[in-house]
Amino acid sequence: MGVGIKQCCLADPSLLITKGLIGAEWVGSDDGSTFQVENPATREVIAELPKLGSSETERAIVAAEKAFSVWKKKTAKERSSIMKRWLDLVKENVEDLAKIITLENGKPLAEAMGEMAFATDIIEFYAEEAKRIEGDVSSSIFAEKKILVLRQVCPALAAGCTMVLKPAELTPFSALALAELGLRAGFPPGVLNIVMGDAPAVGKALKDSPAVRKMAFTGSTAVGRTIMEGCAKTLKRVSLELGGNAPFIVFDDADVDLAVQGLIAAKFWNNGQVCISPNRVLVHDGVYDTFSKKLAEAVGALKVGNGFDKEVTTGPVITVQGMQKVFARNGC
Fold it and tell me: Which candidate in 128, 144, 241, 311 is catalytic?
């Protein structure tokens, strides 16, 4: 483990987990292969994690299928109670969870704390909704890839589904910590499994398995297309959140100061690395000069750096490739 962990200073260091989760067992890779996760602010190696592939994913699917027979039979009130215990544990460890997000993602700690506040709201909402499920529930095992996965995981848990979760290899620690707190809260083994490492192998195992009834994915259009094609073979349901090209539009009657504030919030949230981040800014000619001047001043006031620095307002992009892409688009 790298020195970046010392900077993190967790109250509960056991939440920084470096293994995958199958059933109730934290596991390494079958062949011993690993991959490194870096702190994007310092490029220091945080830790080496097991590079899990098809064989480990297949075991995770079996564990999820076995747990489904247990989890689906619990009453709505029982599932709600376990989710509320999970919520309590997340709240108790919210500062550690925010530090883990900053460590792996680079965003300012204050922003990570705000993200965790939203996360606890999500858990609380679905813990309550677990008692009020209406309609048909068609999915059992749920596979999903997302930096912060609770918007998909919580409704699945509330409905009585089990899942295999594949977090991004760049930012796996927050998902692993949430899973550990889930085990402490009383989720039966296999309700939530986590595999990461060899993305194509993991994805193929999930797509090919008839036990997996639904897959969800957030990422590129190209990968989303292959997931939809693969899922067609077993008639899986899919939920895909893929690439976009979002405009930010400023009309001539807009409150320019408010528009600038809104653009800064939208464009620099999560260091600009979110699916709803504006790709284009369209400004009416009548307010263009004023808007441009005020926007330049607002951007100039941002401080980019290590998210653990209290004065930093914007963290780094997660990968060197992402940084180079930004430079290329700006002619650097």
Answer: 241
